[in-house]
Amino acid sequence: MENLSKYLNKAALLVSVLFLFACKKMVSSPDGTANVYLTAAINNLYPVPGIPANYIADKAAKKLRVPVYISRSGLQGKTTYTVNVAADNSAAQKLIDNGQVNASKAIVAPAETYSFPATVTAGEDYSGFEVAFDVNKLNAYLGKLLILSVRISDPSKFQVSEKLSVLNIVLDVDPVMLGTKVEITDTWIRNSGHPFTASSFDGVRRGVLSDWTTSASVKNYAGGTLGGYDYYGNTGFMSMERYSSPQIPNGKIYQSFELPAGKYEVAVNMLDFSIKEDAYIMAAPGSSLPDIGNIGTALAYSPLTAPRIEFVLAAPTQVSIGVMANLLLDQQYMRIDKWRLYTYKGLWD
Question: Taking the domain 2-174, which CATH number applies?
């Protein structure tokens, strides 16, 4: 309650301005009528996190608290009254159906994710309560927008302004839970490049990468013993190449490790490439990468022209990260200089 009081005091000036605006909106009310309304409902959507004033991160309780302010217009003296508070799931679904939020990401907020009082007692020109989102429940909704329409009704005194009776909270789970992007390449990826090192090398150009699993088809030099490592311009690169050498069907170079739950980004720095067929950077569940025919089972993949992918893990998961290519035609190659892995640190870490 101390946090809420602090936010109420800070919001006094804002509420005064909104109070005047709201009174203008309700000029059709009979003289002397007092209207109860949600201050922030003047805006159709209330984004969280949005600005810092829109939420309080309670780390001790693992709650994301969203202050909700109730105001009253009219000239009556200050007096105590109560209002009922409830979630209006129909209103939330209507926002999604009407395209007012990103329908590909938005869902009606599940009841298990939030709590608020069913009745609020108010006794000043403005009062408030909190909607508390349970952080322990939000990881299951990474990548989603949770839409919670909070409606007030049935005041014990005065009347509710219908136009300002619903606050549509749009909770973007990713920035709340994941926060700032942090590079974790060295924690997880061994021999990540710039330069790459080889476990075996012919002393001139071709080799096999250290710490990476290289499929047999990629080793298309030296009688099927070397490939995947290219010492080019006095620097080691990850490579696949077919220049008058055997075909590379379902060529794969990857590493596997178990990542904690969270959001991840993989980015690759390419030196150069000339690809006529399929070639992707990829993250997939399990201990290997899928064949080209099963690429849909990957967590994420992208062609070398846009070598960056993102994926979300709801629980600790074994993941394989790497490159796969189908080089059947002649005169094709790729050279990768560096792999990078990022995660996001949230308010609760």
Answer: 2.60.40.1510
